[in-house]
Amino acid sequence: MSSSLDALNQxxxxxxxxxKPERIQWCDGSDAEYRQLVDGMLTxxxxxxxxxxxxxxxxxxxxxxxxxxxxxxxxxxxTPREADAGPNNHWMDPAQxxxxxxxxxxxxxxxxTMYVIPYCMGPIDSPIARCGVEITDSPYVVANxxxxxxxxxxxxxxxxxxxxxxxxxHSTGDLDPDKRFIxxxxxxxxxxxxxxxxxxxxxxxxxxxxxxIASHQARREGWLAEHMLIVGVxxxxxxxxxxxxxxxxxxxxxxxxxxxxxxxYAKDGWKVWTVxxxxxWMTPGDDGRLWAINPEAGFFGVAPGTGANTNPNALATLAxxxxxxxxxxxxxxxxxxxxxxDRVPAVDWQGRPYDKANGPxxxxxxxxxxxxxxCPSYTDKAEAAHGVPISAIVFGGRRPSLxxxxxxxxxxxxxxxxGAAMGSETTAAATGAVGVMRRDSMAMxxxxxxxxxxxxxxxxxxxxxxxxxxxxxHVNWFRKDTDGKFMWPGYGENLRVLEWIIRRVExxxxxxxxxxxxxPAPGGINVEGLALGQAAERALFEVDTEGWATEMTxxxxxxxxxxxxxxxALRDEQQRMAAALANTAPRAWAQAV
Length: 593
Ligand code: GTP
Ligand code: SPV
Ligand code: MN
What we know:
With 593 residues, the protein is of the alpha/beta class. The chain has three domains: 3-43 and 72-222, Phosphoenolpyruvate Carboxykinase, domain 1, CATH 3.40.449.10; 226-297 and 380-592, Phosphoenolpyruvate Carboxykinase, domain 3 (Alpha-Beta Complex); 299-374, Beta Complex (Phosphoenolpyruvate Carboxykinase, domain 2), CATH 2.170.8. It is 29% helix and 21% strand. Strands 1, 4, 5, 6, 7, 8, 9, 10 and 11 form a nine-stranded mixed β-sheet that branches. Strands 12, 13, 14, 15, 16, 17, 23, 24 and 27 form a nine-stranded mixed β-sheet that branches. Strand 13 and strand 14 (240-246) form a beta hairpin. Helix 2 packs antiparallel against helix 5 (139-148), helix 12 (412-420) packs across helix 17 and helix 16 runs antiparallel to helix 17 (568-582). It is globular and about 70 Å long. The chain binds guanosine-5'-triphosphate, sulfopyruvate and manganese (II) ion.
């Protein structure tokens, strides 16, 4: 037997000794196994069958109401030295962290089944893909991992070939938030998570492995593990550009990845191809370009706001074989959430008769889990071992003021600063206050497994002779008017912005240089038929130099927080931008489309 399988067996035996499960089940990823798991959960009430006529083989899971989102304050990166985790992470000494959680894992699986889940993040034959094994006592986690990863026998065979794998240990424990910890040991390639059954806390292949552990590995090995969607945009000539975009949690990745061209774009023959909606692993190819894979096999998407007008592709994807978490139900047992349609739900996400006074019917972070293969715009290219070549990287967040609809970074270093300086309002994807503006560098604040200062250096290091790097852009779909309404229609209309981006990549769209970067030249973005109104047209395409000067001061103090570890080039770039703004008359860059 190979040494990695020996190591796996030993680890499984050790975990069983500690957690004392009643039985152990090695998961093979088969249909029969999935059916058996679902049947078991229908019996225990972990799953509720939905209307089989409208939603075949689809189920609802209701979380404990105290366990409905990621818990950033309980998520730790446990490197031997605190400075290596950085000010962007909560840190605990590895020995102390192991002792703390091992005490909670002691006997945690008594009377329960311990599932062993070998999984592969990425196409099974991809050199960019990596494997892991999750041990869990939650059948809900197993069912979700089967949809979200390539799970089972093929992954186990690859682990035997690879010789190594990431170890993830998970137990739902007793769901007591005071005994909940999501611990990462990047040096040991291991994860220990206890006390939560929710998505990002419990499906360890996703944020824990594919971002926190993988970002750490990627730095060592010269690649990037990012919180990005990957989308292909095909123009009427049949040319496709792939774009990777980093938006923070619940800021529009799934929606942009599944965009459907409307109106003139549909008529002219534009097509949009979905590669991934949340995570992107990118590595330099022999040609100097960055090549990307989606390490996931499914979507764990935000339900609220998903409707026929916003994301018809998602609705088509959800037609069958879907697990819903914390959505509401109609009287005939169909899943429902705010933004789906104007029916009135019968039962809310906690199973109570729906009453407006109790708040939204679906939890704001209610989710669907569904195989990517069910998505009409999913492309075979997502299964390509070498990935897809990236033409543009896009950063963006929820910025109700100041930040224009789109601008382009001058060069790679400037683009890294734009990503590092990204800000966004917090959302319901994590516990805590919603709508609070914070810096969320590259949308990785909750997910980078090491010191952000080193992460910025790593990003800068890709700019070397022979590299053919993507152009970097920043977008903001979330600018609001004085009434608090979004100025930009968003969703399908975002293709207008993607068109400008790919024309900039091709060198055919004109731009105006400003101190913050290149904005579309007047008329550069097609706004035909949008009726934006004068105030919006102005706000979306102008640079408020005074406001930006204040923003640069705030960015400078954010960067100061990383001390001497911050790469010099980033500080220089920030000072260059601040100086350019200081030398510019207020609103001199105001643009009208
Ligand atoms: P995670 O899965 O948490 O990483 O989120 P995500 O980045 O994939 O966000 P998603 O696409 O699920 O969108 C989150 C919320 O933002 C949903 O309620 C969407 O309806 C809304 N949203 C997405 N795109 C747009 C847009 O272009 N404009 C506006 N106004 N809202 C949007
Ligand atoms: C996010 O919060 O960014 C998500 C959902 O994509 S979770 O899997 O919980 O991380
Ligand atoms: Mn996400």
